[in-house]
Amino acid sequence: MKQRSSRRIDYYNDQRLMKGSRFGRFFSKRWLAPAELFLSSFFVLIVLGTLGLMFLPGLYQGEPLGWTDAVFTSTSAVCVTGLIVVDTATYFTFAGQLLILLLIQLGGLGMLILTSVIIDALGKKISLNLELATADTRKLIPQVPARVLILNILRFTFLIEAVGALIIYLIWAPRIGWIKAIWPSIFHSISAFCNAGFSTNTNSLMEYHNSPGTILVIAALIVMGGLGFVTVLDIGLRFGKSKRTIKRISVHSRLVLWTTGILILGGWFLFACFEWNALLAEMSILDKLSNALFMSVTPRTAGFNTIDYGSATDSTNLLTIILMMIGGSPGSTAGGLKTTTFALLGLLAWSRLRSQSTTTFASRSIPDETIQRATGLFVIWTTIIVVSVFMMALIDDYWGFEQRFLVRLFETVSAFNTVGLSMGLTDSLSLPSRWLLIVLMFIGRTGPLVIASALIVRLSHRSKFRLAHEDVIVG
By residue range, what is the domain housing residue 245? Predict the structure, then answer.
């Protein structure tokens, strides 16, 4: 009771202090609650990126982008998706690629940095509402102040990107030249860690399908970016205290690590089986194994490709769609439903098959509210994808553009889960379909956190009263 009262007092003091300044009054308005602040941050960044692409000189090799293509490119970069309507390698100059990389870096750092920096700039503590909006991530590492957390995230991001760029440079320099390899190494390291999928090569990484070193380094950067800052900091803090702390990391981090490992290994095995005698047939055994591993990593949700998905088997593309739906982990640069949502749904089904009333993992019970959030997010996510595919089919039928259902589903899931993989459909989309993907990329980048935070707030303020029970038949 005393702790709850102190938190309530801190919250009201925080609100009172914020209202005392001009910026505090601005941010304390109801319509600028943390969820809205998160949405507006990405929206403003997309608008600025669009204006930069339209009006800054020296960004193009040919004709300037139209408004739709500028909005599409800016949204794809800020939402770290990677879908493109023009070739990044040949259409943009160095200045244009630099602008795209800047948008990727700012968008990749995500909600945790953007909102925390804004609140911290006001000289205030993170309020209770902001803690709710960050899906209780700060509860996992409560001993880290907001300012220290932000600095740790920035240090970790730039350190990993710098190390990745150096290793890629050492691999590529003998191949393309010691000077020529500098910019592509930096670009691909940042794009990979931010799970963006943009490349300075016309065919992404297809020309490096026979370079296991390149594949493994890019895959490692994707995984590090997709684990989530909370998980990485949690592991780092625990290991700093004792040699046996691996047994005491949070349930969240353990669930993230287990799910990530299972998805990578399972996908690796299945992709190797699907394409061993197909797309990978003419490769060496080492190249087959490295490419199959990369096919398991990149859908969650980086968007680089070393093979042509338009020529892949339906089994490969369907598994890729499933992995794109799952995505990375909470608090990461990746999109998708998130590994924890997928894992909780699996654990829920397993507990029901064993007739258990609670969902458990690592000898701990998962709160029912968390299970409800995961279920609600899955239902909303699936509904949006189904409606979007249906809308794209209607648009294509109206415009007389025939395409296979799997290709439409692939493109829609890739955009909505901010992946960036394509079966070759993006640059031939009609104007309404491009705007549909723009909306999907924005919702896919901001939606999971906003929906989850809304569910948290609603569940935390739910009524103490309920209507009378009346059962229905299921199954």
Answer: 33-460
Q: Which residues contact residue 150 at a Cβ distance below 8 angstroms, ignoring those fewer than 6 apart?
A: 113, 116, 117, 120
pLDDT tens digit string along 35-53?
Answer: 666 777 888 999 999 999 9
Q: Is 361 helix (H, G, I), strand (E, B) or coil?
A: strand
73 is a domain residue: yes
Span 227-253, pLDDT tens digits: 887 788 777 766 655 555 445 688 888
Instruction: Give the Cα separation of 107 and 7 in Å (integer).
Output: 32
24 lies in some domain: no
Structure tokens belonging to residue 10: 């801190």
Report if residue 348 sits inside a domain: yes
Maximum CA extent, the chain: 73
Conformation bin of residue 123: beta by default, left when phi > 0, alpha when psi is -120 to 50:
left
Task: With respect to residue 12, please indicate whether it lies within any of the assigned structural domains.
Answer: no
Helices 405-416 and 314-326: angle between axes, nearest 10 degrees: 20
Structure tokens at 85: 């309507």
- Give the CA distances from residue 244 to residues 239, 252, 261, in Å, rounded to whole numbers and listed in that order: 8, 18, 21
Q: How many domains does the chain have?
A: 1
C-alpha to C-alpha distance for 129 and 35, rounded to whole angstroms: 9
